[in-house]
Amino acid sequence: MPQSYQTLFQKHLSQQQNLFLEQLLLLIYAFRQVKLSTLGILFPQPITYEIRKRNLQRFLVVRSLCVKLLWFPLVKYWIRQLQTGHNLNRKQRRYYKKQNHKKYAYWMIGLDRTQWKGPNLFMVTLIWGTHALPLY
């Protein structure tokens, strides 16, 4: 993980939770699965499947993993990095500079509402060019 992510995670998570999160993110990245049952099967712990699944459930409800503490600072960091060009290599800076002169060089916030099995779900998304990043 990039150093900026690690410092943010170390600030809000214990060392054991940080290691657990790194393993979880690597599994999601490698196997492209977010189902709890599949992750419970794949998680590298020498314990039974049911206990691995229960550990994942307990970890995912930790209060330190809330959107305001972890996700918003990461999104702010990404936006600041793109706007200022800090920590970008030459190729990335040229690409983003070229993108600023194209048709989709603006940032927008999108709101979406849907009704799913009764309750209303609201989604706030940051839209930049042809990309969308869910915020909340």
**Mean pLDDT reading:** 81
Distance between the termini: 23 Å
Q: Given the structure, what is the number of helices? A: 6
SSE order, one letter for each helix or strand: HHHHHHEEE
Beta-strand content estimate: 15-25%
Would you count the extended β strands for me? Answer: 3
Q: Estimate percent helicity.
A: 55-70%
Helix/strand structural class: alpha+beta
Could you describe the largest sheet, including whether it forms a barrel?
Answer: 3 strands, antiparallel
Number of domains: 2
Question: How would you describe this structure to a colleague?
Answer:
This protein has 136 residues and is an alpha+beta fold. 55% of the residues lie in helices and 16% in strands. The chain contains six helices and three strands. Strands 1-2-3 form a three-stranded antiparallel beta sheet, with no helix packed on it. The chain starts with a helix and ends with a strand.
What's this, in brief?
The chain has 136 residues and is an alpha+beta fold. The protein contains six helices and three strands; from the N terminus they run H-H-H-H-H-H-E-E-E. Strand 2 and strand 3 form a beta hairpin.
Key terms:
single chain, 136 residues, alpha+beta, 2 domains, three-stranded antiparallel β-sheet, 6 helices, 3 strands, globular
Provide the fold topology.
Blueprint: H1 3-12, H2 15-31, H3 36-42, H4 49-60, H5 67-84, H6 90-100, E1 107-115, E2 120-128, E3 131-134
Antiparallel strand pairs: 1-2, 2-3
Helix pairs in contact: 1-5, 3-4
